[in-house]
Amino acid sequence: VEGIAAVMSFYTQVRHPTINYETPDPECDLDYVPNVARDAKVDYAMSNNFGLGGQNASVIFGRV
Fold first, then answer.
1. What is the pLDDT of residue 41?
2. Integer Cα distance of 30 and 20 in angstroms
């Protein structure tokens, strides 16, 4: 499902929000999208999956 949401962001040109992000850490200066989606040009998206027993995978999707 996460991979589908990542690919759909190419069509909607929206960055998905980080839900329940209320207290930013001043030591970690990243461009978060807190609580509400943001319009943006999306050319690449990454989907991470973490499984039990160390079975992990990452997929990067790109616009063509």
1. 93
2. 16
CATH topology of domain 2-62: Peroxisomal Thiolase; Chain A, domain 1 (3.40.47)
Tell me what pLDDT residue 64 has.
83
- The type of residue at 14 is V
pLDDT for the residue 12 = 94
pLDDT tens figures, 7-17: 999 999 999 89
How far the first Cα of the chain sits from its last, in Å, is 21
In the chain, domain spans = 2-62
Neighbours of 59 (CB within 10 A): 13
Q: Which tokens belong to 35? A: 């609580």
Residue 4 belongs to what H/E stretch? helix 2-12
- The helix/strand/coil state of 42 is coil
